[in-house]
Amino acid sequence: MAKAQAGETVRLRLVLTAPPKGAVFSLQGKDGVVERQSVSTGADLVFDLVARVSLEGPAPRWLGDYVRGGQADRFFYFASGVYAGEPGRADGRRGKVALWNIPEALVHEAAKTGAVLQATTPGADKHGLPACASVKANWALA
Length: 142
What we know:
Layout: H1 2-6, E1 8-17, E2 24-28, E3 34-39, E4 45-54, E5 61-63, E6 75-81, E7 92-98, H2 104-113, E8 117-122, E9 133-134, E10 138-141
Parallel strand pairs: 1-8, 7-9
Antiparallel strand pairs: 1-4, 2-3, 2-6, 4-5, 6-7, 8-10
C-alpha cells in the first residue's frame, strides 16, 4: 500500500516552442509558487520537473508538487507575466498541461526505464501572445 501512496518517480519535460521574445515564463508550483523563471529569446524554452505516478489502479494517478486537479483530470501549470513573477507586469497568463491524457504505455515505460516524458506545445497563441489555457501537448519519450 505504501507504494501506491508514494508512486513511481517520473521525470517530465515541457518544451515551449517559439515563445514570444522577451516574455517571462516559469513553472507554477502549488500555492502559485514561481519556479524556474526564464526570459524568452524566441528559442524553445525547456522546463524539467519531477512527479510521481501510481500505476496500481485502473489508470495512472499523478502526484507531486506541481500536480493539480482532481484524480481524473490531473495537470500542471506553466505561467507568464505576473504569474511568472515578471517585475512591473500587471497581467499574466497560465497554460495548463494535461497529465491525464498521456498514453498509458508511455507512462509505464517512463516509470520502468527512467526515460523522460516530454510534452511539446507552442509557446505562443495565434495572436503571438504567450500560450495560455488548456494547451494541446504532444507527448513522447525523450
